[in-house]
From TrEMBL, chain A:
This is Inner-membrane translocator. Keywords: Cell membrane, Membrane, Transmembrane, Transmembrane helix. GO terms for cellular component: plasma membrane. The chain crosses the membrane at residues 17-36, 48-71, 77-98, 110-131, 216-234, 260-282, 294-319, 372-392.
From TrEMBL, chain B:
It is found in: Cell membrane. GO terms for cellular component: plasma membrane. It comes from Natrialba hulunbeirensis JCM 10989. This is Inner-membrane translocator. The keyword Transmembrane applies. The keyword Cell membrane applies. GO terms for biological process: amino acid transport. It comes from the Archaea. One of its GO terms (molecular function) is transmembrane transporter activity. Belongs to the binding-protein-dependent transport system permease family. LivHM subfamily. The lineage of its organism: Archaea, Methanobacteriati, Methanobacteriota, Stenosarchaea group, Halobacteria. The chain crosses the membrane at residues 36-55, 62-79, 85-106, 127-150, 181-200, 229-250, 308-326. InterPro entries: ABC_transp_permease, BCAA_transport_permease. It is a multi-pass membrane protein. Pfam families: BPD_transp_2.
Automatic annotation (TrEMBL), chain C:
This is ABC transporter. It comes from Natrialba hulunbeirensis JCM 10989. It comes from the Archaea. The keyword Protease does not apply. InterPro entries: AAA+_ATPase, ABC_transporter-like_ATP-bd, ABC_transporter-like_CS, BCAA_Transport_ATP-bd_LivF, P-loop_NTPase. Residues 4-232 form the ABC transporter domain. Keywords: Amino-acid transport, ATP-binding, Nucleotide-binding, Transport. SMART domains: AAA (SM00382). One of its GO terms (biological process) is L-amino acid transport. The keyword Magnesium does not apply. Belongs to the ABC transporter superfamily. GO terms for molecular function: ATP binding; ATP hydrolysis activity; branched-chain amino acid transmembrane transporter activity.
Length: 416, 340, 232
């Protein structure tokens, strides 16, 4: 609690202290990676720390998981078809970039098409919510899943999307997918794995910024803004009603809230940000396919992230995403994971030594390479059984309040 | 618009003309019932478990996948090119029994060790837990299958190849060429419907399960160990999923593959929800409805009347959505259930 | 040693402390009424005995044996029957099937069925009807019948007259009196005169503890020690 005579900026700043730390951590991370790469522990760093490409996935999947948590964790309505909104955002920007959305001229800035796609998802959510919110529990989850599967099957076979709709659609190479202030060129930065802006010798400081790094920061800003909007809503009277619905919907109704419209509002808002996440993903990946946008397993990833990070804590899913992608990274060979590291570290004789008919090499190939889903599944089950509140939720329980409230209070105590 | 009418109306008339040919109707009904039989076996375990325990079991598809692979493994090891059709069918029956026994045991052990400790939490956690276990089962299967040099997807052709020729050949029924397998599936489906019905309606334990589906606490207070019934029913539901998986082993549209873990689950959800979660009768009717809808839309596409490739899948999930909108409790579901 | 003894039983629903130390005893062949206002813990007392809501503190002894910590089905199989509030039929099961569930598997079902059908001819008449289609009175008969066929020596009866027309209540009273010939009974009843008529002794419960007890002989609602707890 801040004392009343304190300047509000100071008290606000202190309340936001953990946020500032997290944002700083994310902002400085690429620089840390760059520095580590020039030290003797470079191979350890690239084996055990998530690479920048994985950090970008953390950003957009984190945002998607946060939006999933916004509805599922705060109102208690499990949105099992959340991928529908992510997919809507992704496909909207891809189709718009191809000039295939009626009424949206080719060359419309990405910032605007992203916003339009999110608005479309908002409207779609209102339509789905209108019928789904008559149901609760398992039935609500199944109905949203049913809608998402219908959209998935449709988009998978819809010839308008591309000549091979099962494989999805791509953004044409010339399209400008920039994040920034629309129509102000100097304040726009193109994102994309291949086509993003890169800068050499920035401000004459001898620092090079790669296309990946540009994408990382540009996406990061959108994710950060989205997070704060959702955070403000959760802390507003609207958010209090959402939580009241989760705790006891009957009581919330009895006190006079029109719970139906609160649920609709929350659902549509979460769909809006899910679509933003989808749009960011499509812009960065240069396209979208049914299986990486509308599919049930995309929702499942968000679910895993939300549970591991802490469902019902808005920032938790981001940490869940970090955990998830970190695991994916060290267990894949795409950017020097654990198996590459072991193969370099261990001498050939060890690698080919047989234990019960299995060489270490076989072991690595069978149990480490690309096996993240297995271990994530096991960790997920352990969390469900033993840490149901997730990482952030458990820390919060331990501290007895939200981290942003508690850390400053603790610091205050130490200062005296 | 008159110009479009000129082309649309003849198309509708032509479609109807072709539809009301005996060969078309025979094809749609026989194939539809064959698919319905498969859907029933895949879904009935899920509905029994939900009815009694209120647990939506997300491992159901993964259990069917295990059944398909275990069944496939036994068949591949015991069948050679020269094996007689009758021997193959007899082996298949043995496989059904073995898989049922194995998976019933596995399902019971799973319920006892992992689900039982979390009954006092909200239903969401049971969904999450079973979902996580499904992921693990799928991944482990992928690892094991790959280590044996078999691709986890597309379906394992070796196992599908153990089907006797009588099932892969087509037979003429009212002028329609229909695969022999469909007749076999229909027979097994009828056996499954009758078997489950007899268990529920003609045994004391079945009576306890029906009573427990309405009010488990009351059943417990009348002296029946409901926790034990949960374990047994979860096991039986899992065993039925395994049998469903074995049925898929010879089906050209499915076959053993890691994809079954999710595909079977989603289709079983559709059937179970359309029929009404927890309703045996509903599952039978919904399986037939979905089976016929599937074969009808497949026919529409195969004849070129509709060119949209995803029509059968879209129709099936569309049925789910329509049912949930107009009658959330499903065809035969109890009304209050929708309020949970 | 009494037939049923509760000593300092404390039971919680989540965090809410419902029974704050209930002590009472019931002798064999007695009918004991638990009275008190809504929400004071009468139903919870019955649920505690059945271990449906296991107490956190205190002891419950039935025929001299501690039953705390047992599973509900074990308590039931020890011979404690339950006729719950709102009857809790298996609505989609027939009358006969409802009775079948209650008869112990090693018991003679036919004999038990004929026994309750002779007591409640209406149940015989509708034996193939689904229970949800019965009238309220018939459902109450069925609930009592279910409590009687399980070889129970103690019957816990919760609000048997609730929501029934006066004429039907008379039938229910007859049924309960018949049932009490063979069993001991603990009765929770809002209808005060009815409770006094049926029971031999009463316990008055308020705020999760016993505040009064004694013989029902000559006790009326005007009794000062009763009135201040029952009137709202």
């Amino acid at each position: 609690m801040s004392s009343s005579d304190e300047h509000w900026i100071r008290s606000y700043g202190r309340d936001q202290f953990p946020h500032v730390l997290v944002v700083l951590g994310f902002a400085l991370y690429p620089i840390l990676l760059g520095v580590l790469n020039r030290t003797p522990v470079a191979s350890e760093a690239s084996a055990f720390l998530p690479g920048l490409t994985f950090m970008i996935i953390v950003l957009y999947m984190g945002l998607f998981a946060i939006s999933f948590d916004f509805i599922s964790g705060y109102t208690g309505y499990l949105s099992f078809g959340h991928a529908a909104f992510y997919g809507t955002g992704a496909y909207f920007v891809v189709l718009a970039a191809n000039g295939q959305v009626p009424g949206v001229p080719e060359g419309m800035p990405f910032m605007i098409t992203m916003f339009l796609g999110a608005t479309l998802a908002f409207v779609v959510a209102l339509a789905i919510g209108a019928v789904s919110f008559r149901l609760t529990g398992v039935y609500f989850a199944m109905l949203t899943l049913g809608f998402a599967q219908v959209m998935y099957e449709f988009i998978r076979h819809w010839g308008y999307v591309s000549s091979n709709p099962t494989e999805g659609a791509t953004i044409p190479s010339g399209a400008d997918m920039s994040i920034g202030v629309p129509f102000v060129d100097s304040l726009n930065f193109a994102v994309g794995r291949l086509s993003g802006d890169s800068f050499e010798n920035v401000l004459g400081l001898g620092i090079d910024i790669s296309a990946t790094m540009t994408s990382y920061y540009a996406l990061g800003i959108v994710v950060l803004l989205s997070y704060f909007v959702m955070q403000r809503i959760i802390h507003s009277p609207f958010g209090k009603v959402m939580i009241a619905i989760r705790e006891n919907e009957e009581r919330a109704r009895a006190v006079g809230y029109n719970v139906f419209w609160y649920k609709m509002g929350a659902f549509a808002t979460s769909a809006f940000f899910a679509a933003i996440a989808g749009a960011l993903f499509a812009a960065y990946a240069g396209g979208a396919s049914p299986d990486n946008s509308f599919y049930f397993l995309v929702t499942a990833d968000a679910l895993i992230m939300a549970i591991i990070g802490g469902i019902g804590t808005l920032a938790g899913p981001l940490f869940g995403a970090l955990f998830h992608e970190w695991f994916e990274d060290i267990l894949s060979t795409e950017s020097d994971g654990l198996s590459t590291y072991l193969e370099q570290l261990l001498p050939e004789s060890v690698l080919t030594a047989e234990v019960a008919g299995l060489t270490i090499n076989d072991f690595i190939g069978t149990f480490l390479d690309g096996r993240a889903p297995l271990y994530l599944g096991i960790i997920f089950v352990l969390f469900v059984l033993f840490v149901p509140n997730g990482l952030l939720g458990s820390i919060r329980d331990r501290l007895g309040g939200t981290v942003s409230k508690r850390i400053p209070a603790a610091l205050e105590r130490y200062r005296r | 618009m008159p110009i479009e009418l000129a082309t649309e109306v003849p198309l509708v008339i032509e479609t109807l003309e072709r539809l009301f040919q005996p060969s078309t109707i025979a094809r749609i009904i026989v194939e539809g019932l064959g698919k319905a039989a498969v859907y029933f076996v895949l879904a009935v375990g899920l509905t029994l478990v939900f009815g009694l325990m209120g647990v939506l079991n997300f491992t159901h598809g993964a259990m069917a996948m295990l059944g398909a692979y275990i069944g496939g493994l036994v068949m591949v090891l015991s069948v050679s090119d020269g094996t007689d059709a009758l021997v193959r069918i007899a082996l298949f029956m043995v496989v059904l029994a073995v898989v049922f026994a194995l998976l019933t045991g596995f399902g019971s052990a799973f319920e006892y060790s992992l689900i039982r400790p979390i009954y006092d939490r909200t239903p969401m956690y049971q969904i999450l837990l079973t979902f996580g276990v499904a992921l693990i089962l799928e991944e482990v299967t992928r690892i094991v299958v790959l280590s044996q040099g078999i691709q986890p997807e597309p379906p394992w052709s070796g196992a599908m190849g153990t089907a006797p020729a009588v099932f892969t050949e087509r037979y003429d029924i009212l002028g329609a060429p229909i695969r022999g397998l469909y007749a076999f599936e229909i027979v097994l489906g009828i056996v499954a419907v009758v078997g489950v019905w007899l268990f529920l309606n003609r045994t004391l334990y079945g009576l306890y399960i029906r009573a427990g589906s309405e009010d488990p606490e009351m059943v417990e207070a009348l002296g029946i160990d409901v926790r034990q019934a949960f374990t047994i029913v979860f096991g039986l539901g899992t065993g039925l999923a395994g049998i469903g998986g074995v049925l898929l082993m010879w089906d050209p549209l499915w076959g053993p593959s890691a994809l079954l873990a999710i595909d079977v689950l989603l289709y079983a959800f559709v059937v179970v929800i359309i029929g009404g979660l927890g309703s045996f009768k509903g599952t039978v009717v919904a399986a037939i409805l979905v089976g016929i809808a599937d074969s009808f839309t497949t026919w529409l596409f195969a004849t070129g009347i509709v060119t949209f490739t995803g029509l059968p899948e879209l129709t099936i999930f569309g049925l789910l959505v329509i049912m949930l909108i107009i009658r959330p409790q499903g065809l035969y579901g109890v009304e209050e259930v929708g309020g949970h | 040693m009494s037939f049923l003894e509760l000593e300092d039983v404390q039971t919680y629903y989540g965090e809410s402390h419902v029974l704050q130390g209930v002590t009472l005893d019931v002798e064999e062949q007695e009918i004991v009424a638990l009275i008190g206002r809504n929400g004071v813990g009468k139903t919870t007392t019955l649920r505690s005995i059945l271990q449906l809501t296991p107490p956190r503190e205190g002891t419950i002894r039935y025929k001299g044996e501690e039953i705390g910590g047992k599973d509900t089905h074990e308590v039931s199989n020890d011979g404690i029957g339950w006729v719950p509030e709102e009857r809790r039929m298996f609505g989609y099961l027939t009358v006969e099937e409802n009775i079948r569930v209650a008869v112990k598997p090693d018991d003679d079902f036919e004999a038990q069925r004929e026994y309750v059908y002779s007591l409640f001819p209406a149940l015989d008449e509708f034996s193939e009807k689904e229970a949800r289609n019965l009238s309220g009175g018939q459902q109450q008969m069925l609930a009592i019948a279910r409590g009687m066929v399980g070889q129970n020596e103690l019957l816990l009866v919760d609000e048997p007259s609730e929501g029934l027309a006066p004429m039907i209540v008379d039938q229910v009273v007859d049924a309960l009196e018949t049932a009490s010939e063979d069993t001991t009974m603990v009765l929770v009843e809002q209808n005060f005169p009815l409770a006094m008529e049926l029971a031999d002794r009463f316990y008055l419960i308020d705020h999760g503890t016993v505040v009064e007890s004694g013989s029902t002989e000559g006790v009326t609602a005007d009794d000062e020690r009763i009135r201040r707890y029952l009137s709202a």
